[in-house]
Amino acid sequence: MFSFRTTPIFEQDDLVLRKGRVGVFCTPNCWHPERGEYLYETFAKRGNLKHVFSPSTPEFSNKESHIYVPLEQLRETDVLIVEIQGAGARYFAYTNDLLELFSSMSEEKINIPVFIVDHINPAGRQVEGTMSEAMFKLAHRHGLTVGEIASLVHNDLNARFPLHVISVSATPSNRELLPWTIPIAADMPGYFTCSLYSGSALWSGTNVTPGIGTTRPYEIFGAPFMESLHNSYKMPPAADGATLRPCRFQPSVGEYAGRQCFGYQIILEPGASYHALSHALQLMNFVYRNCEEFSIINDDDSLGFNDRTLIDLLDDEVLYGYVTGDVEWETAREHIKEQEQKWIKKARKFLLYEENQLFRIK
């Protein structure tokens, strides 16, 4: 069962929301300024809040965070309300936590209704990359809201629990707050972050830092061993829609905490189209060819990325082959094009806001 609703969650008259035991799966993005309180506070005041499932680390932290839902606690609820802000890419932890929960609910036959309070996708409708071969066959940058991607996965799982999505336009905070006002996650603080994340997040599967622990995560990347690139005045490839600036930075956390890193800042051109994934692949190919110390495995566990590898994040042998020099760029680009077209054909069936269609950069 699926429904799309156009009135706020607080005005829904379902008996289970008024009288049932409520579980809330949320991030700080569930703040409702018109009420002056978080979503879970409203249900606490009603007297039927049972559990709150929220990020495992503080809001302003330097570690990757997750939202864990013990199934024994979920079974103590009659309804689950979800309000998180997505980042538009398949690597984003909180969205993946929700989809994994959907899978567990389906397997364990926990068929309580789920309500999603939907939010704008700050990365927009642009699609990038290839579809994963993993359980959730999503593109790197999928172009969907949390409600839309939940609907798609709910369908793929043939799940039996009811799913209800509260429209973006039903929630006043979506009109009063820009989608980046409250940070989506600790490492995603700014306006440009989501436009770069689908590409720059791939660095977390290598020994080059994407700038986590600095004021510009995913806008900068580098490592101590990349000093040789600065000294030789070698510039990585630029891309349509962005320019590069050599820079130095010192992360406060991670493998290079307290050490000087040499790298580059990606500067987006106002109003220009930019394919973050394609550019990141070209940058990685450049570093792979010019820095012997470059490793496509991240064995640093201080940020929660222990043993994360580039191949895990790419989940695509053609793209991985391009980074390591075994595949030509034209082959990789054509592969990306075909996969993006395939994803758009699949995902458009689950669009809830058809006034804005999915698109790819040609």
Descriptive report:
With 362 residues, the protein is α/β, with parallel strands linked by helices. The protein folds into two domains: 2-180 and 344-360, Uncharacterised protein PF07075, DUF1343 (Rossmann fold, 3-Layer(aba) Sandwich); 193-327, Aspartate Aminotransferase, domain 1. It contains twelve helices and 16 strands. It has helices at 15-19, 39-46, 71-74, 93-108, 146-156, 172-176, 193-200, 227-231, 276-290, 310-314, 317-323, 329-347; strands at 2-5, 22-26, 31-32, 37-38, 49-53, 79-83, 114-117, 126-131, 139-141, 163-166, 220-223, 242-249, 261-268, 297-298, 308-309, 359-360. It has a six-stranded parallel β-sheet, with helices on both faces. Strands 9-8-16 form a three-stranded mixed β-sheet. Helix 4 (93-108) links the parallel strand 6 (79-83) and strand 7 (114-117). Helix 4 packs parallel to helix 5 and helix 7 (193-200) packs across helix 9. This is DUF1343 domain-containing protein. Residues 196-353 form the Peptidoglycan beta-N-acetylmuramidase NamZ C-terminal domain. GO terms for molecular function: peptidoglycan beta-N-acetylmuramidase activity.
